[in-house]
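Progress report, Aim 2. The chain analyzed during this reporting quarter is listed below.
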Amino acid sequence: MLKSFEKFKSWYYHFPAQRRNEFILLLGLLVSLPVLLLDVSTPIAQTLFITMLMAIYWMTEVLPIPVTSMLPIVFFPLSGIVDADEIAECYSNDTIYLFMGSFILTFAMERWNLHKRIALRLLLLVGNRPRMLLLGFMVVTAFLSMWMSNTSTTSVMAPLVLSVLKQLKGSKMGEEDLVEHKPRDEIDERSIEDLNLPVLGNTETQDIRLQEVHVESIQENLISTQATDEDKEQIVNRFAIALLISVAYSAGIGGTATIIGTGPNLVFRQQMKILFPNAPEVTFLDWFLFAAPLALLLLLLIWAGFCFAYIRNTKAIHFDLFVFQSEYNKLGPMSFAEKVILGDLALMAILWFSRAGFGDNLPGWGHLFHDKPGDGTVAVLLGIILFIIPSRSADESRKTIMDWEALRDLPWGVLILLGGGFALSRGFTASGLSVWLGESLDVLDYLPRALLVYCVALIVTFATEFTSNVATANIILPILASIAITIQINPLLLMLPATIACSYAFMFPVATPPNAIVFASGYLKISDMAKTGLFANILGIILMPTWMLLVGVPMFGIQMNELPDWAVS
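Predicted structure tokens for the chain:
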């Protein structure tokens, strides 16, 4: 079997890239076409066909993901399932603008280096003990990822990790011998000779030179004399694996803590509106209270596992915070623009938390406007403000805190991908495919409800290793909603765990952009990520459904064997 696969792979990659793409385009059509022959109504078969085709194209990326995401705009009106205006609305709604507004804030933070200032300030607070340094990187990454995209967060944190590793390995990233760390009074002429520095005859001058050597030795890092040369290299390499992988994992985990933190959360938000328009809204506060403690708990468990596996000999590593302090000093005093952006972020979070209120007795500010504003309203309003306020910068090209040129790299493709998923969901309900899928999978009714939650977490966690987490959520959530209706359970019981599981892609470099960024550092092998990722996946598969059953069920008022009224219609 393995030999056959290797032969196929060799044959496949023998062809030019354009020929391979043409092959997959044709193969996707051939695989999807037979569903049109199923003994079901034409709209159901047609929607199943486009769903399969989009899933194949999303997974293989034979077409750019945003291009595949636009297929519903063409297909559903031509097949008569959904009219053009209705399907186009899926690409422009409150959730899309919520994501766009959060992107504006992210770009503003990056433009004025506020994200870097926050990261460095927090890292300086945790100190230089290896385990605390690891925890510091994880917590800072997770916090930034709650408000910024996972990719942007990792792009900020990865260079800081590499600066730590550069200090540990020497100024040439390990190509020079590591210098042993000694107190000033233990630095002798042999130490100076080892560093190729001349021994000066003048005692006073030599003492000054010794102080310079001491400063340089601290800045180079410096591994304790308790370990052999071979041990030093091994210890630093293991510490490198822990730091780099922890940043990638923390970006994904932190993104699950807020409803704007990552794409699948927003997919869930809009899918609930499309599939169950009468359902009570899962507000920003609801999501945070449910998901943030879960994210923190998983983060701490992974940190403990990393400490056990990679940082057992803490005395062998000494790291000086000079690099962080130096980078922080380069930023200078906090600018007016940074203060405005920080205030903008704080105000945005407060308005998101308080929009829907805190129960029946304490309505939110949205009640003053007859509950018409959404989270997208807040995001866009506070994003627009940044285009109005002067920056007070000496740089003439930056008259206001934000300008349109600063948004030239706005990821429009991600917004189109979200819209494509929402359009697919609209087709599910309009064609009757959601009902048909639920009836076809009614065998799941015989599974215990708790076991079903664990099975969903298991399947989604490993499925998202091979395709975009947003694409996975777009495909799986309407199916789970159909299953829930068929077996008469609350859809949240399956959809919430599945949404969070979409962000648990820890095993492979291609699974998420953060994984790819840290893998590109050159410190990691695929086997490192696979082994560590399997550990993290198993933790997530056990912890997240357990959290749903113990915390989510009472928090959202879920009855394990009852379909709520809002889902019946």
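The first strand starts at residue 179 and ends at 180. Residues 257 and 292 are 4 Å apart (CA to CA). These observations will guide the mutagenesis work planned for the next reporting period.
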